[in-house]
Amino acid sequence: MADELVHYDVVGGTATITLDSPHNRNALSAQLRGELSSALATAAADDAVRVIVLTHTGPVFCAGMDLKEARGAGAGDQGVNEFPRILEQLWTSPKPVVARLAGPARAGGIGMVAACDIAVAVPEATFAFSEVRIGVVPAIISLTVLPRLNPRAAHELFLTGDTFDARRAVEIGLLNSAVPAEKLDAEVARYVKALAAGGPKALAETKALLSRPRPATPSEGFEDMLALSAKFFASDEGQEGILAFAQKRKPNWVPQD
């Protein structure tokens, strides 16, 4: 559709979700939020999709909430009320999600980057938790951002609202890598290929594992983890992986080159 703000495309097991609202820097307007949530739900439910890539058109990845829509609205009518669903979809997606940034992210845009499993940006991309500078709190995004960030950096950047570059974003844990623009697509493709090599069910369960609270000691977790490990070793997917290793071939879930 010519007037859609989020495009959805699947090629070779990769679903690419593209934010296409450059006139407002891909701000999280009501229309964009609805279309993005729908695209994420479609990708999660499609067995043919192995990996999701979240990207954008225009010079900015995402500027955060649409402040024009927020102006004058009461607390119950703010678009931010719908935002947790999107962050939850990204964080809990059974398919790994890769964020591809060819430009800056601000506020809620950074929340989405942090909710993705892998994030790659160009060195020129900048970031800022700008909420405090307009008198609001980075509350919702804190739930995806704080698990990623170095605590000392989080205090500094949340409280000052200062802009920081992609190099520092890598250092503090927000990004996995920052590469020149001409290498951005190759870097994303490298991660996509590596992720698609994993078993679909194993990837989904591993994502869930990464989000679980850690037991106080390893001993407290061994019983549950033993049951999970044994279940997957005996599963159809695990047996196929073991057989493929023995036969020196790729498992049947790996996309064909």
TrEMBL record:
InterPro entries, A to Z: ClpP/crotonase-like_dom_sf, Enoyl-CoA_hydra/iso, Enoyl-CoA_hydra_C, Enoyl-CoA_Hydratase/Isomerase
GO molecular function: catalytic activity
PANTHER family found in the cross-reference section: ENOYL-COA HYDRATASE, POLYKETIDE BIOSYNTHESIS ENOYL-COA HYDRATASE PKSH-RELATED
Family assignment from sequence similarity: Belongs to the enoyl-CoA hydratase/isomerase family.
Protein name: Enoyl-CoA hydratase
Organism listed in the record: Amycolatopsis vastitatis
